[in-house]
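Progress report, Aim 2. The chain analyzed during this reporting quarter is listed below.
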Amino acid sequence: MPNVLPITNLQSNATEKAIRAALEGKWEEAIEFNLYLIKDEPGDITALNRLAKAYTEIGDIEKANNTYKKVLSLDKYNPIATKNLIRLKTKEKVKIQSSINPSPAIQANFLEEPGKTKSTQLVRLTDADNLANLHIGQSVMLEAKKRSVSVLLSDGTYIGTLPDDLSFRLGRLIRGGNKYETFVKGLPANHGVLIFIRETERSRRYKNTPSFPMTTHATYQADLRHTELREEPLDTRETGEDEDA
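Predicted structure tokens for the chain:
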């Protein structure tokens, strides 16, 4: 008798493929896998939200609207469907560009300025479903905590954390009054998130301190001491979001 995967295994594989397709911008494949999932489980809200997202990305706004409305018929307070329906209705939707060829308008957000800008990969990432809803050029926020700097969506959804050395520096600068704007710059196929940070305002206390000095590790540490950016050693356990998040 031939080996046949149990239905639950097939569904699990389809879920993984649906998420991977979205992360890689393969929206037609994402639609196919999510349709497969809701065929057997019409009330799968997560799959329906992914499906609506995929419809939005290929420009099928009518199907996207209808799918989000289906979600709300099952869960009338669902935040993802509610938020995206508002975006579609008010025509504030930002078209997702591929990480290989973003539009000129999006590229303008990523202009490099020595000492004032930096691109970095996030660590301690959120779950794959939240990552699948990100897009190139999307504005995100920095939140300085005691031991790290978290990256959040405008609604407070946690995305990831800055690497420890960068958290060490920016956390103190942010608490000292510096301000920054941050965008999603890339979404690598390995479920990574690359962000772009730009200093927009330097506090009086750190007026002579570049946010992102071009230095070696040794001089970087010396620079931190010189500008009194002292902090106790960071907890480098990569176990998820900060304990005080």
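The chain has two domains: 7-89, 104-226. The first helix runs from residue 7 to 23. These observations will guide the mutagenesis work planned for the next reporting period.
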